[in-house]
């Protein structure tokens, strides 16, 4: 059984705000820890997952000045579940705008898990001079093969009863392209069907991201308000391939050369197959790779959590 490490004590933000990033979007952010300590930014998953108080506890508050934010359209950012002007490159620009809120922060540690790892890679490859270190968990490079594995054929074979529930809102004739069918439902005018589809999409992920069933993950993904942003944003991003060329993040991994980094990935990660994390490690000179046995996708899996805390502790001294 992997060693379990405790999270840092719960702390409250010392600053919160809503940053107007244009295009009608206002992004909620918070800063926690010690003002003037090592700067870091936390990038949540989804897209559309939002931040939680637990995420603050991955960093030693005595040694970090950590910024967390809800990406466009989710959490406490507004408009809720909004799709307009909401792309990967808008979010990359938002990260830069948030960095500039703290004068003198030329570089910061970037921490991203799941979709957050995708966003971290996109940001670091565009702005390598702004990244002091990278900590990535549950690497997702948003290739068509990864999308097909999770939303068409692959994980369906591991969770047949959950897959049947995921298929249920979609007419039989449209099940050959599940993402497109869900896109129609999630953007359609029928609000009841939109909410039904959002819950089914959200629960498919909430019930397949841990090695063993997790009531906490199920309950979060079953919340109707959470599910609407989560499902609409994920589907919106993935229908557009996250505005990345297929395989782009792996092809351009050489841009990360010189950035110290740690990759943490569960052996039995269902949404994000381990081969892509391994490929990133091979393409990223100097990266450190931890493939955690007996773990799925979620950051709360004991072996994954321990490796993440080890990484933030180690980089706090740099």
Automatic annotation (TrEMBL):
GO biological process, one term: proteolysis
Residues of the signal peptide: none
Keyword rRNA-binding in record: no
Catalytic reaction equation(s): Release of N-terminal proline from a peptide
Compartments reported by the entry: Cytoplasm
Principal place of residence: cytoplasm
Active site per database record: 114 (nucleophile), 269, 297 (proton donor)
Keywords: Aminopeptidase, Cytoplasm, Hydrolase, Protease
Enzymatic class: hydrolase
Molecular function terms from GO: aminopeptidase activity
GO terms under cellular component: cytoplasm
Residues of the AB hydrolase-1 domain: 41-297
Domain of life: Bacteria
Entry EC no(s): 3.4.11.5
Family membership: Belongs to the peptidase S33 family.
The protein's name in its UniProt record: Proline iminopeptidase
